[in-house]
Design brief:
Shape of chain A: globular
Strand order of the largest sheet of chain A: 3-2-1-4-8-5-9
Number of strands of chain B: 6
Radius of gyration of chain B: 15 Å
Strand content of chain A: 5-15%
Oligomer: heterodimer
Number of strands of chain A: 9
Number of domains of chain A: 1
Distance between the termini of chain A: 47 Å
CATH topology of chain A: Spore Coat Polysaccharide Biosynthesis Protein SpsA, Chain A
Shape of chain B: globular
CATH class of chain A: Alpha Beta
Strand order of the largest sheet of chain B: 2-1-3-5-4-6
Order of helices and strands of chain A: EHEHEHHEEEEEHHEHHH
Order of helices and strands of chain B: EEHEHEEHHE
Helix content of chain A: 25-40%
Strand content of chain B: 15-25%
Distance between the termini of chain B: 26 Å
Helix content of chain B: 25-40%
Largest sheet of chain B: 6 strands, mixed
Radius of gyration of chain A: 18 Å
Structural class of chain B: alpha/beta
CATH architecture of chain A: Alpha-Beta Complex
Chain lengths: 287, 167
């Protein structure tokens, strides 16, 4: 089918609860985007291995997988870590994902050159999300304005974050071909971040919005259903594995665990990670 | 120091006389279009910036390379050396073509490395232009003569500051 080769998915970030969310992510995306090409990048925290990823993607079109060493996962530049709402130096949360996207963006372009394939649409997500299959029918490129080879936009899911007219997102994005290539370059665009402090009340998220507008990329709320679900923290895994709730209910309940996890003491968080074979590096910033 | 990526499809040793310049000869033998040449050269520059110490030189106040350039066409290869000399202080969003004249071919682009690689990352996206969003060259046979006009258009479109060197 023509559309099959025109969608690709970037899954990037710390693997975290990937071993428990992978089924929902892969089955939903394979159904909704009709077997897209997958690009996967994570950090060598021990949560996943090269072999386990090969097994995970055995029924999917995995084009590229990469597990970068922890040393390389530390930001590729000098900078001290600050909270996401204020930074006097560099916002690591923003640039870490930008660093991953830049890597995958290069691989994607090389793949396009080598195969002659041209993606129309790129979907971005993270390994620790629950993506419920809430869709009656697969995504249809024909009803998407972003299928045009223009910079139409990078669009968040329905849970988009708004700053007045500015729309951005924290977890899932979808972008037209050109918008994606520019979005993947954001890691070396520091116009709004070089040594500036207190950019906005929402820190990292607003940073993305600034970048999109600077590059004339439309950012807006999704006009149609897009896969996008809550993060799954280790304290939610027992619920996720035992629950018989439908996906709509799971979406709501999983959200409540996110805040609870952040409020746990560090030793409890580490205990949960060890209980579920999650590399503690994945959640290091919360300890 | 300047970094110049040259398509291997250019046989001539065009860059022999350039001073203080590191030349990357990029294998473009499999390219079907010059858009692919540009995309390959852009990736080569990004990888070169990365390969120095495993980290990227884009993130530094004192980059080793002040400019990056891509050369994909030997025709209209004029004024490159003086342009390189004059634009040593190109800012992060500035890119310079050999000409902005729609009746002339674009043969090279240079500028701040950030701007050049960002622009090059979009080269494949203007390979098959959608004339609904690029009406300038839709019907006019003269304007449509040189598809390199798209390269200038996309540079504007992604918010870069675009300059032409020789008019």
């Amino acid at each position: 089918m023509d559309t099959v080769n025109k969608v690709c998915v970037f899954i990037r970030g710390a693997a975290r609860t990937w071993n428990y969310t992978k089924q929902s992510i892969l089955s939903t995306l394979n159904y909704y985007f009709q077997n897209p090409d997958f690009y996967f990048l994570t950090v060598d925290s021990g949560t996943v291995s090269d072999q386990s990823l090969s097994e995970d993607f055995k029924d999917s079109n995995l084009i590229h997988k990469k597990i970068i060493p922890i040393d390389a996962a530390i930001l590729p530049f000098e900078g001290k870590r600050n909270t996401s709402t204020k930074w006097n130096d560099f916002s690591t949360n923003y640039f870490r994902m930008a660093w991953y996207d830049w890597h995958l963006g290069i691989v994607k372009r090389e793949h396009e050159i080598q195969t002659g394939k041209r993606y129309n649409l790129i979907f971005y997500t993270r390994p620790d999300c629950f993506l419920g299959n809430l869709y009656q029918e697969p995504f249809n490129l024909k009803y998407s304005r972003i299928t045009e080879q223009d910079i139409i936009g990078i669009i968040g899911e329905r849970r988009a974050i708004r700053f007045g007219e500015v729309v951005t997102n924290d977890i899932n994005y979808i972008a037209g071909a050109r918008a994606a290539n520019i979005f993947n370059c954001r890691y070396y665009d520091t116009k709004y971040t070089d040594g500036k402090s207190f950019q906005g009340t929402h820190g990292d998220h607003q940073n993305i919005a600034y970048y999109l507008y600077k590059n004339f990329i439309t950012a807006r709320h999704s006009e149609y259903p897009l896969p996008g679900g809550p993060m799954v923290r280790p304290n939610a895994l027992e619920y996720l594995m035992t629950s018989t709730d439908n996906d709509h209910i799971k979406y709501q309940k999983l959200d409540t665990y996110v805040k609870q996890f952040l409020d746990l003491p560090s030793n409890e968080k580490i205990k949960l990670c060890k209980q579920y074979n999650i590399g503690t590096y994945d959640y290091q910033r919360f300890f | 120091m300047n970094l110049v990526a040259v398509s291997s499809n250019i046989q001539d040793n065009l860059t022999a006389d350039l001073k203080d310049t590191h030349i990357l000869k990029v294998d473009c033998s499999q390219s079907k279009t010059f858009f692919e040449d540009i995309a390959r050269c852009g990736i080569a520059i990004e990888k070169h910036f990365l390969s120095e110490d495993g980290k990227s030189m884009f993130w530094t106040d004192k980059p080793k390379y002040k400019t990056a350039s891509i050369i994909w066409d030997r025709d209209f290869f004029v004024n490159f050396a003086p342009c390189l000399e004059q634009w040593q202080d190109a800012r992060g969003d500035e890119i310079i073509f050999n000409s902005l004249d729609v009746y002339k071919k674009r043969a090279w682009a240079m500028g701040n490395p950030r701007a050049v690689v960002k622009w090059a990352s979009c080269a494949l996206n203007v390979e098959n232009i959608n004339f609904a969003v690029f009406p300038q060259s839709g019907t006019d046979p003269h304007l449509n003569k040189f598809p390199t006009s798209r390269l200038v258009w996309i540079a504007y479109r992604i918010g870069l500051r675009v300059y032409g060197y020789s008019e």
